[in-house]
Amino acid sequence: MPMNSVNTNVGAMVALQNLNKTNSELNTTQTRINTGLKVASAKDNGAIWAIAQNQRSDSGALNAVKESLSRSISTVDVALSAGESISDLLLQMKEKALAAADTTLDSASRVALNDDFKALRDQISKVVTNATFNGANMIKASGTTVAALASADGQNKITVAAQDLSLGASVVTVSSSSEIATQSTASAMIATINSSIANVSAALSKLGTGSRALSSHLDFVGKLQDSIDAGVGNLVDADLAKESAKLQSLQTKQQLGIQALSIANQSSSTVLSLFR
């Protein structure tokens, strides 16, 4: 049987300890409900917090990867659009050259065809010059080769090579001074244009393949980031339904603890009755 004492109230001490423990658990639960996190800082669970923080770092880095991929896709797509325009211009130039190769053509018509041909030729240069996105031009002479980030550590990249579609280069072999002023030059020009059309188609195929690779990897990176974020959530997110139920339980325990402490504090007053 415990000793009655006014100096040491064991019952009150035990009640206070239990109440403090309940208050501590209640504070933890309320913090989890307020933040939505069961591991909000390193002191909650150092190992889990460190793992989650590393994963957050990877997820954040993937934002830069996605931006790089998106920017590269836009750069390649601008080059593709310009290349398709150049291919269309070459087709029109071929028509002019074929028409000018007719031996029965009168001089006025030949001059008109040649003027149209030169206008189309010069338009190719304008297209090449203006095929720029964010300062990068993939189809001019010494154009920009795209090297998009492909991983969170920056070590892996997806490269799409530049394609020189300027006049007089290896792809578009029509020169900046080409004309169809005579029947013989027009006839010779047909073969040159056919070669240029085939070359441009091959160059566009390479750009198209690169654009698809970039788009595919962008989709993958988006899914990877979602998976990482979900993994972080599994590690640190609180189960709010569970925490809500726990909150109700702890609030009840807190009220009972306060009552128990009050009863224990009153026990010492009973000693006075012994002296009456």
List keywords for this structure.
rod-shaped, 276 residues, mainly alpha, two-stranded antiparallel ribbon, single chain
Summarize the structure.
Helices cover 67% and strands 4% of the residues. It is mainly alpha-helical and 276 residues long. The longest helix has 55 residues, at 46-100.
**Helix proportion:** 55-70%
Along the chain, the helix and strand elements come as HHHEEEEHH
Q: Which structural class is indicated by helix and strand composition? A: mainly alpha
Q: Any idea what the shape is?
A: rod-shaped
Strand order of the largest sheet: 1-2
The biggest sheet, with number of strands, parallel, antiparallel or mixed sense and barrel status, is:
2 strands, antiparallel
Computed over alpha carbons, the radius of gyration is 39 Å
| First-to-last CA distance | 23 Å
Poorly predicted sequence stretches spanning 5 or more consecutive residues: none
Rounded average pLDDT? 88
The number of strands is 4
Number of helices: 5
Strand residue percentage? under 5%
How would you describe this protein?
- The chain contains five helices and four strands.
- By secondary structure, it is mainly alpha-helical.
- The strands form two sheets. A two-stranded antiparallel sheet has the order 1-2.
- A hairpin with a 7-residue loop joins strand 3 and strand 4.
- The longest helix is centred in the N-terminal third of the chain and has 55 residues, at 46-100.
- The two termini are 23 Å apart.
- 26% of the residues are buried.
- The model has no long low-confidence stretch (mean pLDDT 88).
